[in-house]
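Input:
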Amino acid sequence: MAKMIKLVSGDGAEFEVEEEVAFQSKIIKDIVADADDVIPLPTVSSKVLIQVIEYCRKHAAVNSFPLSPSSSAAAAASSSSSISYSKPVSDPALRAWDNEFVKLNNSSLFDIVIAANYLDIEELVDLVLETVADRIKGKQAQEIRRQFNIENDFTPEEEEALRRENSWAFQNN
Amino acid sequence: MVSVPRGDAEATMNRPRPCDSDMSTVFSLDLLANILDRVSDPRDRKSCRLVCHGFLRAEEIHRRSLRVLRLEVLPGLLRRYAAGLECLDLSACPALDDRAFSAALAAGAGQWRLRSVSLSRASGVGWRGLAALVDACPRLEAVDLSHCVGVGDREAAALANAAGLRELRLDKCLGLTDVGLAKVAVGCAGLEKLGIKWCLEISDIGIDLLAKKCQDLKELDISYLKISNRSINSISSLGKLEVLNMVGCSFVDDEGLQFLKHRNNSLRSINISRCENVTSSGLTSVIEGNSGLQKLNVGDCFPELASLFFSKLNDLKDSLTVLKLDGFQVSASSLKIIGLNCKNLAKIGLSKCQSVTDEGIFELVANCVHLTTIDLTCCHLLTDRALISIGDQCKKLRCLRLESCNLITDKGLECIGTCCSSLEEIDLTDCSLSSTAMKYLSQCSKLVVLKLGLCYMISDEGLVLLASNCKKLRELDLYRCVEITDDGLAAIAAGCKKIQKLNLCYCTKITDGGLRHVSRLEELRDLELRGLCHVTSSGIAKIAMGCRHLSELDLKRCNLVDDGGLFALAQYTENLRQINISYCSISGTGLCMLLGTLKCLQDVKLVHLSLVPIEWFEIALRASYEKLKKLKLLIGLRNLLSPLLIEKLHSRGCRIRWVEKPFAARR
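Output:
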């Protein structure tokens, strides 16, 4: 019988998952190594935890091996230029499943990526951020704001100054 | 793992979120930067900057390289980007001087992580600015000062303090002598790449010291220097040398090249073109023992290459991918030997090899099937048969140059168009082609550069064919294709939206209507409209409003263009760097408006502006002397302009060309 890990969400709901599913999260893997089978996750709501577990279950079934090791430059990464991506999903069926999985509204996506970031599930973070980036591509600033419901906190003068800069102050190399 | 400091993550997650959460507040700066990393298109990145403060901040910490176009924004920009910036390009920043440069560096004091800085052509920067640069940027690895003709030993001494320097370009730094070079060699012993092309004061002594001190050198450019065989001897001691450029070293002969024999496989690329005192035997000795050689350029030395040279190429049979033999008499049998010896050849240069025949090409391509670039400029004897051989064998062909191959006709293009689907660049200047050739060429959907100058028979029909399939076209040269009309331009504007460079010189049937079509090409940077006698200011105004990225414009002999055109340019084309308005009907007002307003204008040609009084020239040039780098004027003006003005221009590094040109229009 596979070893079971118990995850407790922020609103007190308990979820039992197989070890290999839970171990998609590096954080959980580390905690369990210290011999602790019940893991409280006060910052993750049930709704989000269910979705994350669903992802992990699907990916655990496909990947027999643990994910690529996370970069240990975590602490200094705030100014790091190299974002390390996990290896791309090669199985087309799995990719199709992933694409369906991220057909969510922005709010849900944000919740998931924050949770996945906290739990250190690299592939899930990549998947969601890639989706968000796709929703930005090809759009003007106003369209991006509308898409993600972002408030424009620039004054008209600031915005005009930035627009002018964009048009003639500099280029990308 | 995407890092988020634990404290921050928990703080953001514990905050109660509204139903539709705002990404910029909910995500940490790192996550936002991570998203930006995945948005590769520079235009999208610029859009992101405008979204909100959070996005702007993320973009600021994320940006690694920057090319600044205006001096006045420099301090502000650098203050914002200093924390993350690694590559800074100031070569386009007009009127940059030491004071402004030092002030800009101070804006990011203590934070600089800059690794590479380009100050190419920034003639106002001297040793003070460079000293400030070295001081402020401890991680500095690469500096480009090429074409800063005033740079000399004092500047070199300032650079010598950057002990971590790996790459240095001092090409055309005419003030540099052995003394300055020695300082750099001693101070920057880890130097890996060095360019001192055209630094004519450098002698064998300087090269000798350089070779002794900088043993890690991998790339060296000593082209046009007055050095002798002794220097080649010194250079031969550089055990890691991979790339050696010694174009036009007239004082080096075969004896010197002997020193390059048997360099233990480190040498990958050597360019000894234009060395007049080198013979076939010297060139042969370069091949010997350097079996790792990948690129060999021996062009323009002298007419004859002995057969020994070609058979020696067998030594390089596995490695040689690029061979340039420009200017040599190369027989069919020699080409056959090349083919047999160098089957991995990817690029071959036979420009001005006037004796090359169809048979020679046939022999060459029979074996060199991996060729991607073939340069046959001025190989007058070639006919369509040569193109058929190429099309049959070289399926990977990407670049083909056939300028002045006058015997080529449409039929030759049929094979190329059908067989060479990877073709990206083709030069057919002065070939006898008509629109039928376009039908064949339009099959090459990857075409990026197309040159059809002097192909008088090309008509609108050809352009329509081209525009239907060649959507990736970036450069189109229709110089003197006199049959082209506005309709042809309509087709191009609709189909080839990525065009950046367009030459319509002397296509005299074009009118303002045609320019209205051209104004829809949003990516256009370089536009040449010489001699378009039906075009007026109205057409120019449309271009100005539509092509906002326009950087170079040539309006010579567009005699109907007057001040109205210049006013429009002054208002809209903020990035214009180069303009030729010689022979246009403009007045002093227009000239002053243009020169005074456009901040990026650096290169101006003002020949035969007969409606502009001398006082207005004076005013216009005074308003712009700080930014101008190149100026072309009628020689008569030299005595009429004030000496003070001319001196000021020179002191800012502006090069003035005085020309003597008759007013008569060209036929």
